[in-house]
Amino acid sequence: MPEIKYLRARDLVILSDTIRVLVSGACGNMGQHVVRAVTSAKDMELVAAVDPAGLNRDVGEVALGHSLGIKVLGHLAAAIEQSSPDVMVDFTHPDVVMGNLEVALKAGVSCVVGTTGFSDTDLKIIDRMCRNHNTTCIIAPNFSLGANLMMRFAAEAARYFEYAEIVERHHEHKADAPSGTALKTAELMEAARGEPLRSAPTAHEKLAGSRGGETAGLRIHSIRLPGYVANQEVVFGAQGELLIIENVSSSRECFMPGVLLAIRSVRKLKGLVYGLDSLL
């Protein structure tokens, strides 16, 4: 895992020029929200949209209900060459995101990534690509400000409790399990505690996997159902009491302030920055 950089607000310099943004995965649920957020931001300009699923459609008609005069392209390298973006925002799929990052970083385009499912090896490769091309990439398992505060509070609580479990609930189309947010939470909790937490043993597990997956001493339970967007609770247990820290997302709009923060910050950073908490 690359070193996580913690920054202070005064370390971030607000750029005066308009930020040119390309959205990869522009026709997906998150991509459409990003298109709406970028076009509403006074300091940003949407210059390109990439998504093979929406090829040749006007991205404004897809995301806003009216034309923006920007056709959705299917080839990222061509889109970058035509539009000269400053920042690429990627909400695509774990199967394609590494290829997208290689293309964008090599072209000198800073990247903001909400796609999850990265391995430690993937993150090391991305960090090396950033440094080789003197370009920056922010990868955030969760762009919700509330979710990032939930992770921070859980890390603080982990210093005082031995036992904890994580229950994360997402929509039925989420590609990976457990979520990147759950894994990031477990990582922060272990780091704050200085050692793994404890998991209560089960003598007879009648159904394999019923106690969830385990990492850093934590059991993680993943639920995938229609009706959820992205929820997570961290449950701490001690003699005679429970502490439950929960974040509930009812709409993907909650991710947009974090996405815009990352877009405004990314060009003034170096290398790979993992986690939105680094910017708070």
CATH class annotation of the largest domain: Alpha Beta
| Overall residue-averaged pLDDT value | 91
Q: What share of the residues does DSSP label as strand, in percent?
A: 15-25%
- H/E element string? EHEHEHEHEHEHEHEEEEHE
**Strand runs, count:** 12
Kindly report the name of the CATH homologous superfamily of the largest domain. NAD(P)-binding Rossmann-like Domain
Q: What radius of gyration results from the CA coordinates?
A: 19 Å
Number of helices: 8
Helix content: 25-40%
Shape category: elongated
Tell me the count of domains: 2
Named at the architecture level, the CATH assignment of the largest domain is 3-Layer(aba) Sandwich
Low-confidence stretches: 4-16
Q: What structural class should be given to the helix and strand makeup?
A: alpha/beta
Compute the separation of the termini in Å. 20 Å
Summarize the biggest pleated sheet: 7 strands, parallel
**CATH topology assignment of the largest domain:** Rossmann fold
Give a quick summary of the entry:
The protein is an alpha/beta fold. Helices cover 31% and strands 23% of the residues.
